[in-house]
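User: I'm writing a short report section on ligand binding and want a predicted complex to refer to. Could you take this sequence and MGD and write out the structure as tokens? A short remark afterwards would be nice.
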Amino acid sequence: MSIAQSPAELRDLKHETNMSDKAVGVAAVLSSFKHVFTSMPPLRGSVALLKLNQKGGIDCPSCAWPDPDVKDRSAIAEYCESGAKAIAEEATSRKVGSVHFQRYSVEEMGQQTDFWMSQQGRLTHPMFLKEGGTHYEKISWEDAFNLIAEELNALNSPDEAVFYTSGRSSNEAAYLYQLFVRQFGTNNMPDCSNMCHESSGVALGETLGIGKGSTTLNDLENAELIIIMGQNPGTNAPRMLTALEKAKEKGGKIVAINPLVETGLTGYKNPQTVKGMLKGIDLADMYLQIRINSDMALMKALLKILWEEELKRPGSIFDFDFIQLKTQGYDEMISDLDNYSLEQLSVDCGVETSQIRELAKMIEERKKIIICWAMGLTQHKNSVSTIKEVVNLLLLRGSIGKPGAGTFPVRGHSNVQGDRTMGIFHKMKGNLAEKIEEYFGFEPPKKEGLDVVESIKAMHQGKAKVFMALGGNFLSATPDTEYTAEALRSCNLTVQVSTKLNRSHFIHGRKALILPCLGRTDRDIQSKKSQLLTTENSTGMVQTTEGKLNPPSKDLMSEPAIIANLGHKMFGSTAKVNWMGMVEDYDVIRDFISKTVKGCEEMNTRVREDNGFELPNKPRYGTFPTDTGKAKFTVNKWNPIQVKDDELLMMTLRSHDQFNTTIYGFDDRYRGIFNERRVVFMNDKDIAKFGFKNYEVVDISSYYDGKKRSIQNFKVVPYNIPVGCIATYYPESNPLIPIECVAEESNTPTSKSVIVKVEKQ
Ligand SMILES: Nc1nc2c(c(=O)[nH]1)N[C@H]1C(S)=C(S)[C@@H](COP(=O)(O)OP(=O)(O)OC[C@H]3O[C@@H](n4cnc5c(=O)[nH]c(N)nc54)[C@H](O)[C@@H]3O)O[C@H]1N2
Ligand SMILES: Nc1nc2c(c(=O)[nH]1)N[C@H]1C(S)=C(S)[C@@H](COP(=O)(O)OP(=O)(O)OC[C@H]3O[C@@H](n4cnc5c(=O)[nH]c(N)nc54)[C@H](O)[C@@H]3O)O[C@H]1N2
Ligand SMILES: [Mo]
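Assistant: Sure. The structure tokens for the complex follow:
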């Protein structure tokens, strides 16, 4: 068996139906405490939880959900079950010391499950796997930096190295990392965004002028209509539910568009109020159970109905003042709608026209409209176009650039947006390039670098030979697991800067390094002073975060210190780029950020203010910094994915007990799944059609371009999911996602629409 995946062994699945009334509430509170207090002593656990998302405390590492105003923060708890689990995972008292690596070979550890890896605890020492070695061995930091420098210097070109970033790194670490990579001479900086909200960034950048959402938490609470597409906030952004509840209390309506009826959007019990704990409410006023990958059809259907109504009652539906003053491309967009029939669009998305009309009516009657979305919209071939249709809808109603209205892509990793602001990007932004040259005295490379998918291909073809990752779990997060494993294995050196063990440590280059670093919760002391770090949330607010707990080992380095040491080793610390000087006090890094990153002026002062500071966001205030200065309507072609009769369309999801590739446990409580992850959710009709029995064990394969990719041992779970659609958990199903299958324009792997066959064993 390949060690590139968690073993395919089955567990004893328990499946309960009717979970909707068991969401959040007491169970969530109990689950939070269980995770924290079984991982660490009570005092450590209490300090961690009490400091979470409080001013002067720790910014939660679980997701990028914004914090309320300081004055509105709950005095006792500003966290959720998912945050508590993330804290338990990072601040655990368990450790993986060097003895552990003597005891288990790389092969043996690779045979273990992802859950086992997360349970082993925090990494404590730099570890080295020599060429042909069977076990990682302890190495000094000095030797580790020498080794990386040696391998980098031996390359024929800087473009033969690849530098990945996950989204947990602080702004300070991200800033130093991009500076290091650019001083080295490449833009090969793939990041987790490439697999996450890249499609949002591209679509919003083109149509509205910046690749970020336009709304704030306050807007959400004051919206009249919130449409939530392709997102499961109950699990992945639970604090969003509190904001939705507030919006609802003020009379706002909530509509969910999702192939699954996700608990949280229904049956929500606020765990932070007594009233909320006792009585569950359905947050969603309307739930459209759409077929996978057909959101564009639904959007077009809505646009068509709104246009019909506008023709009947001219001037009453569309906001022509806004359209004339602020936008372009209206005529083309409207006339293109004639190419589609409402009936066919309704068939394509699997939602009755009567329901679509009902939603259209809600849109007609309200002006303050916010559309939220996450991975259900971004990880398809047509994602960029779909998000542009979302923009079309908002523009027609003038619902953008006004309080309570606009776009809300809900970000994933807690600092994924900040990493981009700091310059982690495989493209070089002109403005940053000039500033780097002005302040650091070297000319950064201009040539576009490699994104995630391109990096994997380059490694596979031998064109990239050194791989370094600042966080993350590249092997398991990326598509086409076996292909990616081959890619990593063909490198000369792979370097993982990590807090915890993961599968990317066992699928490695000829030589491999694990560099253990401080996490968000750890106290970071430099020059005898505790250091602040900063992050940016989903709504573009920059705030401080300060670790409060004793680090698991004195041999850990902070991420900024690791990068600075490497920079110093490679280039020396000069007057212009004083690598070691920058990490003596992170205020120095922030001073450089202030001078070189637009919108971060006076960062040291402003970030210490109560709520931190807001990055510039012109669309939020009604101006659109596109090349023409106008917001753009776009024409997007709708082509349904062709799925043959013996095939199904698969989406890959997160369970309630995981953070991306980190597996906290085997339950997905809100979906009624207990003690198993190897499940495939399927409609009763499909189970009958293919002749399966409930809970029968099957294999799943994709046959893209004639190449068979397979995963074994999945239990068929009857579930309320549209016919023709199935769902499995990520990362177990990543081997099925072909490396060539990507979103147009954004190059994001199509993790939410994989054509597969489910096969009897
Ligand atoms: N606890 C926890 N929190 C997390 C994470 C985690 O793993 N665990 N991950 C973080 C990260 S990095 C991210 S990006 C976010 C992810 O947050 P989500 O995007 O909520 O995560 P997914 O599980 O991928 O869920 C996608 C949702 O989209 C729906 N969906 C799938 N395909 C379609 C489609 O074609 N159309 C529509 N309308 N819906 C569709 C699915 O049914 C599901 O509800 O969460 C962040 N927060
Ligand atoms: N099939 C499928 N694939 C997907 C997705 C999907 O929905 N379906 N979602 C995609 C998305 S949205 C994302 S964002 C990616 C996630 O991709 P990644 O960000 O690469 O993956 P994570 O699982 O979040 O990374 C976990 C590892 O990060 C390390 N880590 C944790 N905290 C820190 C820290 O503070 N510093 C450092 N240096 N390391 C740390 C730990 O060692 C841990 O093992 O996966 C993508 N892949
Ligand atoms: Mo993400």
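A remark for your report: The first helix runs from residue 25 to 39. The mean pLDDT is 94.
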